[in-house]
Amino acid sequence: MKKLILIAVMFCFTCVAEAEVTYNNSALSDLHVNTVKGLLYDIAHSEGVVSNPSKEQTQKLLPKFSKAVVWLNERHNSSKTYKLENLHSEEAKLIRGVIATITDIVQGKYPGLLVKKALDHWTKIGSRVIAEYTVGLNGTTPKITWKFELKPEENKTQNLVFRYGPSAEEINQ
Prior knowledge:
Elements (H helix, E strand, L loop, with lengths): L1 H13 L6 E3 L2 E2 L2 H16 L9 H22 L5 E2 L6 H17 L8 H12 L2 E10 L2 E10 L5 H8 L10
Parallel strand pairs: 1-3
Antiparallel strand pairs: 1-2, 4-5
Helix pairs in contact: 2-3, 2-5, 3-4
């Protein structure tokens, strides 16, 4: 089982994709970006993850996480290549920290945490993250608007209802 997890993780973090953000000479794929976004969302919205954050602390985290996700998405979708280890913005530091945390988890530094289950969870959540961050002016003062939430899950059973109509079979007794 450990070999299977190790192979899956190695595949996830060594596959070359069309990503335009690299870290340690490996390109970040959509899967990597979604995992990062999912972990950030989980940190901000899970109880007890950040030592029982108060509502005020959470309100400070959410705009920063939103800004970092927007920043990462813009660079990931860009035609220019960005080496994450050479960038020194607040957003780059946050993304590097999240990647370091994911790497620590994969390497087993958090005993009791099921690696494959956690990575699957964060990737699934990350694919649904909606992040927006804009800075405008309200008179002479800057006005920041942000959004950091999840798209609703697709209803998987709805397609089944439409695909298979009712049928009747004769029962011989």
